[in-house]
Design a protein that fits this description.
Radius of gyration: 24 Å
CATH class of the largest domain: Alpha Beta
Strand order of the largest sheet: 1-6-5-2-3-4
Mean pLDDT: 88
Largest sheet: 6 strands, mixed
CATH superfamily of the largest domain: HUPs
Shape: globular
Low-confidence stretches: none
GO biological process, one term: tyrosyl-tRNA aminoacylation
Subcellular location: Cytoplasm
Number of domains: 3
CATH topology of the largest domain: Rossmann fold
Organism: Sphingomonas aerophila
Helix content: 40-55%
Structural class: alpha/beta
Family: Belongs to the class-I aminoacyl-tRNA synthetase family. TyrS type 1 subfamily.
GO molecular function: ATP binding; RNA binding; tyrosine-tRNA ligase activity
Amino acid sequence: MTNYKSDLLRTLDRRGYIHQLTDAGALDTLASGQVIPGYIGFDPTAPSLHVGSLVQIMLLRRLQQTGHKPIVLMGGGTGKIGDPSFKDEARKLLGEEGVRANVASIRRIFERFLTFGDGPTDAVMLDNAEWLDALEYIPFLREVGQHFSVNRMLSFDSVRLRLEREQSLSFLEFNYMILQAYDFLELSRRAACRLQMGGSDQWGNIINGVELARRMDGTEVFGVTTPLLTTADGSKMGKTVAGAVWLHEDQLAHFDYWQFWRNTDDRDVGRFLRLFTDLPLDEIARLEALPGAEINEAKKVLANEATAMCRGRAAANLAAETARRTFEEGAAGDALPNLKVTGEIGVVEALVALGLAASNGEARRKIAEGAVKLDGETVREPTHRIAVSAPLRLSLGKKKIGVLQPANG
């Protein structure tokens, strides 16, 4: 652990956010002496972000907590292109209306994590469409394009890996890193932004922006990246068998969000408490040191705190109580995934509709394995039909549980 003097870098270091830094000493000195506006970009490719974006959201929260100014940059312009970084193929291009709708929807997420306003450390949300949409191609090539080496751009991992795999990389996507560098330059000019943060896959793009600001304006700006976040079993953070863990409640129920954190691997508990909660470090040290089965109490604390931050304390309390009743008392809670049924439904269809199984094939396999139960009784046949005249609890394994409700109930 490095002995930083600024609250910002000391906090980021102790909580495990730092992977790479440009000129750590100069950034540390600057952060000790003034308010630093810092930004992270988010492309509005869906109405919600998912848990895979949460480290970056928390990074902006830490920036504000340590007395600096977060800038949330929505990629209304770059979102029309798509970031090629470590993708196997091009993203589907969004229209103007789709981008605008997604930006408005995503803003609600940030309002839970950051304080927005007009004060010196209040967060602001900007959209790079404001300057990118107005660019003229020939002047942009003359003024900005001359500062980029294609040889160097081809060497960045995000591009090189696509080419080595012989996967198509369009000229449209190749331009993305130039536009992101230009974003940093514009934010430096418009908002005195001195810091860009992002995941480790953004390092090349951030370096481009740092160098562009120096070459065109003589301005010193900085970059910070976070480690690639994987779980202890090596899987990508925020992805489950059932799909993405969305931050918006209209795309993922409160209980499912709480349960995602509750199911954290024992080896990840301390790390996730540091990254995704505001608990003091000494309390986290105590929780992650709990022996044996007691570590489950730390997982409940993680689930409660992470859910309260994203969904509100009332939602966290309801989800925790539902889990207690479901797993300790065998009750069917209101916060579990619910499905309204008129008359009857096939068990395979029900498992998929509740999100307990990702496909009909998985549902049939789990039934054959004896892993599916209806109100505590094992379902043996995939052709079984369930008559729903009262609430019924359908479970796959010990942790995936949903409720079938009569449509007129």
